[in-house]
């Protein structure tokens, strides 16, 4: 018998706070954070000191683990990017659920007759979700958070316009070209919360998944502890409170706030592509621009994955060793992760190797200039090995049968999906996960 199953199946609302470190809710005063709603949830429910993420510790692989209970090597989403071509101008992301190789929470919930809903959940475009507004954008858009036409096209038919109509101010024009301007005036997190509240009130789904992303965006730009980033955490706390108030009338609702990975500050940018080009592993066109040749690559901030696109010669392997040695000598690399360790981490089986960034460094996709330079773009990153300090994710759950102020200690990201399935009252074993559900009682 699953200990943490509620006496009756519970509706489940999952709010993903992208990049939220657990020390934000464990030691809010240390950061000067005013987060009354998160603190209230910690007191009224169960929470983890540490949630070990996946490798690389990035949003898309982690969010798929959150809804499948298995590591990337099993679920098939190894990166945020769907293209191995580092020279591609506008690289597509892994937006579509058809790329997931195992059943998800929404699959098993829908199969059991339960209603599902999602707002901006990663890798959910085209998913079998009854009420779905996925996270997806035109990769050529200058600002993905203000590309509304792409998610509108991929949402459940008529849902995007239905939500938009409910959110539009009375003074706003009623024309069909209405994905702006008032949408542009709202933060991404406020828009997502408003959509979630509307869907909840209108359709009462058994499972509602919501992804908040503003802290992640600002933590990259300014650093994880910068005033701008911490202000985003406080604003997100307000949205969590508003959603909590909306579902508060339902006694059988489990509210979960979690994250996918942590964040660390950086001040130096390293570009592996520079070394790869100089060693002849990427080509150059007539304009001197890099073009795909022997190696594919994916940059993930705290890590950098390399892929042979054709059978390498001895000389090719020697060239790669030289490029990696140059990066190691620059001080930018904490560890070179070989295929054996990648297998033990449940990471991408096709990668030849991954570079894990040294403290204060991150990897970019820059293809010209010095190998290492002071960062002018990002001041925070993630993507490192999940064992690295600062990469910890968070987890808080409150609801019927959950013990107040329970400390779960250290848990795994893979334990979340089986726990949520149990809260929904689904049969044990409906997911591919072998991870044990958390005892929340």
Question: Which key phrases capture this entry?
Answer:
about 450 residues; alpha/beta; Alkaline Phosphatase, subunit A; Gyrase A, domain 2; about 30% helix
Description:
The chain has 441 residues and is an alpha/beta fold. 30% of the residues lie in helices and 19% in strands. An eight-stranded mixed beta sheet has the order 4-3-5-1-6-17-2-18, sandwiched between helices. Strands 7, 14, 15 and 16 form a four-stranded mixed beta sheet that branches. The chain has a four-stranded antiparallel beta sheet with strand order 10-11-13-12. Helix 9 (214-222) runs antiparallel to helix 10 (227-247). The model is unreliable at 1-7 (pLDDT under 50).
Q: Which radius of gyration do the C-alpha atoms yield? A: 22 Å
The amount of helix comes to 25-40%
List segments where confidence is low: pLDDT < 50 over at least 5 consecutive residues: 1-7
How many discrete domains? 2
Proportion of beta-strand residues: 15-25%
Please sum up the structure shown.
The protein is built from 14 helices and 18 strands. It is α/β, with parallel strands linked by helices and 441 residues long.
């Amino acid at each position: 018998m699953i200990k943490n199953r509620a006496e009756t199946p519970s509706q489940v609302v999952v709010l993903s706070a992208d990049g939220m470190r657990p020390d934000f809710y464990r030691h809010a005063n240390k950061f000067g954070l005013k987060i009354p709603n998160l603190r209230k949830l910690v007191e009224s429910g169960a929470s983890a000191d540490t949630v070990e993420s996946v490798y690389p510790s990035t949003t898309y692989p982690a969010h798929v683990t959150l809804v499948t209970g298995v590591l990337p090597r099993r679920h098939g989403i190894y990166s945020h990017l769907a293209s191995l071509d580092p020279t591609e101008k506008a690289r597509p992301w892994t937006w579509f659920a058809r790329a997931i190789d195992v059943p998800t929470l929404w699959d098993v919930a829908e199969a059991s007759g339960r209603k599902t809903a999602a707002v901006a959940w990663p890798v959910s475009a085209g998913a079998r979700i009854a009420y779905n507004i996925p996270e997806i954008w035109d990769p050529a858009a200058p600002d993905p958070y203000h590309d509304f036409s792409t998610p509108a096209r991929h949402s459940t038919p008529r849902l995007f316009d239905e939500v938009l109509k409910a959110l539009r101010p009375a003074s706003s024009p009623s024309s069909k070209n209405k994905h702006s301007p008032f949408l542009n005036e709202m933060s991404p997190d406020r828009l997502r919360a408003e959509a979630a509240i509307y869907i909840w009130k209108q359709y009462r789904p058994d499972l509602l998944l919501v992804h908040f992303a503003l802290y992640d965006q600002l933590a990259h730009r300014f650093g994880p502890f910068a005033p701008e980033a911490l202000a985003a955490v406080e604003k997100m706390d307000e949205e969590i409170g508003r959603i909590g108030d909306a579902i508060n009338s339902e006694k059988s609702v489990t509210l979960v706030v979690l994250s996918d990975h942590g964040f660390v500050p950086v001040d130096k940018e390293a570009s592996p592509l520079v070394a790869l080009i100089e060693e002849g592993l990427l080509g150059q066109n007539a304009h001197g621009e890099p073009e795909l040749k022997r190696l594919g690559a994916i940059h993930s901030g705290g890590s950098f994955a390399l892929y042979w696109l054709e059978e390498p010669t001895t000389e090719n392997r020697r060239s790669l060793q030289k490029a990696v040695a140059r990066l190691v000598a620059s001080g930018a690399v904490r560890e070179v992760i070989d295929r054996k360790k990648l297998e033990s981490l449940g990471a991408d089986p096709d990668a030849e190797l991954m570079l894990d960034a040294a403290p204060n460094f991150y990897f970019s996709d820059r293809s010209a200039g010095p190998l290492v330079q002071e960062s002018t773009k990002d001041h925070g990153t993630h993507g490192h090995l999940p064992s690295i300090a600062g990469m910890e994710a968070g987890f808080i759950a409150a609801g019927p049968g959950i013990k107040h102020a329970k400390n779960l200690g250290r848990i795994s990201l893979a334990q979340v999906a089986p726990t949520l399935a149990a809260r929904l009252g689904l049969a044990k074993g409906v997911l591919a996960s072998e991870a044990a559900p958390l005892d929340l009682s």
